[in-house]
Every structure is written in C-alpha cells, then in structure tokens.
Write a structure and sequence with these properties.
8 helices; globular; 15% strand; alpha/beta; seven-stranded parallel beta sheet; binds nicotinamide-adenine-dinucleotide; Rossmann fold; 254 residues
Length: 254
C-alpha cells in the first residue's frame, strides 16, 4: 500500500549488493519502508537470509536473495538471474566493498590490488552495464554506486582501496552521459567514515582521530547513507545525474 508521499518507491524493485553489511542492511530496510521490493545480494548467505526474513516479517514487500561472490565470473550472470527471480529491476545499488590496507595478504595467488579492483570496481561496472541496458527498455532507472571519501582524499597505505573507489567516479559520469536520455540517472554516494563492521580494522584511537575531524562531531551511521540512497532512488531526484553526493558530516567540503 502507498503510505509514503515523499521518496515513494512503491512498485519499484531494487537490487542491493553488499546487503549483509552495515550500509547495505540499512539501505534494504529504508527502501522497504518506502515500498520497494528487493533483491538482496551478498557473499554471506546466512546473514542475507536473516536480514531478508526480518524485512519480510516487518513489511509487505517481496524480498529475494542471491548469494554471489562478486569477484568471480558469476557476477556476469547476476543481473539476469535477479530479473528472472524478481522481474524488472528499477533501482541498482552497487554497495558491496572490500576495505583492507595495501599490505593485506589475500591468502591466494591473487594480489589485493586485483581483488579490490574486481569487487570495488569491476563488479559495479558489469552490473551498471547490464542494468542500464535493461532499464533503457523501460525508460526508467536509478543507478547508485557507493564510492568513498577515500577517492577524494586518499588514505595512508590504502592506495588499492582508494584507486578502486576513484575508478567509480569516471564510470558514473560516462554512463550518465550515455543513459540520461533513457530516463536513467547514474550517481554515486561518497560516504565519510561510517560506523559499520568495515571500519573494525581501525583501532579505537584511529576511530577517535577520524571522529575528531568531523565537524558534525560524530562518525556517520549506516542510516545517514541509506537516507541519501533512498533519495537518489526516488522520482524526486530525476534532475540529478553524474554526481557524487558527499555524506561525511563535513569531513570534506566542496
Ligand atoms: N564504513 C565506512 O566507513 C565506509 C566509508 C566509505 C565507503 N564505504 C563503502 O560503503 C560500502 C558498504 O560498506 P559497509 O561500511 O557497509 O561495510 P560492510 O563490511 O559492513 O559491508 C560490505 C558488504 O560487502 C560484502 N562483500 C564484500 N566482498 C564481497 C564479494 N566478493 N561478493 C559479494 N559481497 C561482498 C560483504 O560481505 C559485506 O556484507 C562499501 O562499498 C564501502 O567501501 C564505507
């Protein structure tokens, strides 16, 4: 039932990657609240079904889950698999990410740079291309990629992560040029430092240093990012495309 007036997503279906993580879960709940049906994607199958069950018990939406390792070939079939399960996808939220320092050992023959590029950039690239082609047929689409403040300020010993996030900025601008005439907007959100499991690799002291650099006076929470994603997913954001939305409590200002 349509019980939301602003940023209403009733009748829309959103595919969200990294849905078992902090920002992904908050985004799934927020888009559900606004009436969207969901396809939730992550590598963590158990957490994914827990989140999906919670949402289904609270809202009336349809929620599908797909367990997928975005660094593997299976990412190439992900969008069509999602459409087979859930029908037309109107909103793509490319949110999954891997955050490690440059000297992290992958435990495989693969270098961290290669893996970071695959998960943080290539998977987004593939899903964007598949989504845009499909959305163009329906003359509506919202593509929202999650980048990072790191793409703008860098990070000491985080060159791989920051480089992979920077690549997203060129991608969204190019796709915005190509697909705006088809009713598809392509934007990204650049979170500041957000209190999710991802930043547990930082020490308490490092978190405090980050917090002290935020004019708003606190680290971000997943809901801060989910709110921006919900806006970008809505009809109301139709005149915004090719943009990066900085959600960082003022840590970086343009
Ligand atoms: N938390 C922050 O401070 C922060 C800051 C800037 C940007 N971001 C970005 O926000 C996004 C969400 O991060 P978060 O903070 O919620 O982190 P998180 O670690 O809580 O969630 C990330 C999710 O991505 C999933 N994922 C990772 N590799 C995957 C793979 N190969 N296949 C499928 N799923 C995979 C993880 O399983 C996890 O559920 C990421 O892109 C991250 O880079 C986060």
């Amino acid at each position: 039932m349509d019980n939301c007036s602003l940023f209403c997503l009733c009748g829309r279906t959103a595919l969200i990657t990294g849905a078992a993580g902090g920002i992904g879960e908050a985004t799934a709940k927020t888009l559900s609240e606004q009436g969207a049906n969901l396809v939730l994607v992550d590598i963590k199958e158990d957490k994914l079904s827990e989140i999906s069950n919670n949402i289904k018990s609270k809202y009336n939406n349809k929620v599908d889950t797909i367990c997928c390792d975005l660094s593997k070939e299976e990412v190439k079939q992900l969008f069509s698999k999602a459409e087979k399960q859930a029908g037309k996808i109107d909103i793509l939220v490319n949110n999954a990410g891997l955050f490690k320092s440059d000297d992290w050992n992958t435990g495989t023959n693969e270098s961290y740079l290669h893996l970071a590029m695959k998960i943080n950039f290539e998977a987004q690239f593939i899903l964007c291309q598949d989504a845009a082609k499909s959305m163009a047929k329906y003359k509506f689409g919202r593509i929202i990629n999650v980048a990072s403040i790191g793409a703008f300020i860098g990070g000491y010993k985080f060159a791989c992560y920051c480089a992979s996030k920077s690549a997203i900025l060129g991608l969204i601008k190019s796709l915005a040029l190509e697909y705006s005439k088809h009713g598809i907007t392509v934007n990204c959100v650049a979170p500041g430092v957000i209190d999710t499991p991802m930043i547990n690799i930082l020490t308490d002291e490092e978190k405090e240093i980050n917090r002290s650099m935020v004019p708003v006076g606190r680290l971000g929470n997943p809901q801060d990012i989910a709110n921006m994603i919900a806006f970008l997913a809505s009809n109301e954001s139709e005149y915004i495309t090719g943009q990066t939305m900085h959600v960082n409590g003022g840590m970086l200002m343009y």
